[in-house]
What does this fold into?
Amino acid sequence: MLSHSAPLPTAATAASPSRALSATLWGVQLLLAAVFLLVGYTHAIAPIEVAIQRAPWAASLPVALIRFIGVVELAGALGLLLPAATRIRPALTPLAAAGLTTIMLLAIPFHLARGEGSAVVINLVLGSLAALVALGRARWAPIATRSPGSP
It folds into this structure.
């Protein structure tokens, strides 16, 4: 017969995420938010010449599409942080991460067709990290909604 020196996890302990997982997800969320705030600013707000200088692929797309992509990147960056940090509608955080994952997945065939292998690697890394946050905040370490009346 096998003996266990440690007690078996209860439903309460099995359901609560580890501090390491939560801290890792917060770190990834902050990193992704910083990246998407920077590129989103470049695509949405900076002069189009600056956007083209930083991302040569932008020259082959309509300015309105570049601006739209930038606004979506900015919204995704804010969605990674604000709902989770305020605990107001924190279920929006994995949705924002899933949206950023989708953007990165859609960018891969575009960059492959242009022969931009280094951009594909960046898209894969950012998309994978965003997928990790989406899954992590939806299933492994969701953030509880703030209870009414709490600060």
